[in-house]
Design brief:
160 residues; five-stranded mixed β-sheet; 18% helix; alpha+beta; four-stranded mixed β-sheet
């Protein structure tokens, strides 16, 4: 079995969208990403922190099309990792302020996560990891992740 290099990470994701301007507005205004480049009404690239792009949006095969069927193979969600609980709380508040419907929230022991969808139904997770020393482990030292409710009201108290 081939193993991935331990330094490998996932760099970016490209999403098929039906309306590029609507999707740019969502990822820019709700998620807070910056547009780094665009190609007319066909594609745009957005990032955080000056990276070339974390998200690519395109309409090459999907312009004005229907959303992907929920019960089919494909992308489940894109996950946005925040550096700490305060940053996650601020991102969550921005999502709420934009009127986005929250579809779920969970404390996984290793992380705290909130789930919703973009305007095309692409799943989004915003989350923060706990320090590795706090991760739950079983008696043999293996990860023992959980799926318990996340107290969203307590999270919002973290907003400065």
């Amino acid at each position: 079995m081939t193993k991935a290099h331990p330094g490998m990470s996932i760099g970016h994701v490209h999403l098929k969208v039906t309306d590029l301007n609507r999707s740019i507005a969502f990822y820019r205004d709700v998620m807070g990403l910056d547009v780094t480049q665009s190609y007319g009404d066909q594609a745009a690239f957005l990032s955080a922190g000056g990276y070339h792009h974390h998200i690519g949006l395109n309409t090459w095969f999907s312009k004005n099309g229907p959303p992907a069927p929920r019960r089919s193979a494909g992308l489940f969600h894109v996950a946005f990792l925040y550096p700490d609980r305060a940053a996650l709380a601020q991102a969550f508040k921005s999502v709420l302020d934009a009127g986005v419907e929250i579809e779920g929230a969970a404390d996984h022991g290793v992380s705290e996560a909130i789930y919703f969808s973009d305007p095309d139904g692409n799943g989004i997770e915003i989350y923060r990891d706990r320090p590795e020393g706090e991760w739950p482990r079983d008696a043999s030292g293996q990860l023992d992740m959980v799926n318990t409710p996340l107290d969203l009201e307590a999270l919002l108290l973290e907003v400065a």
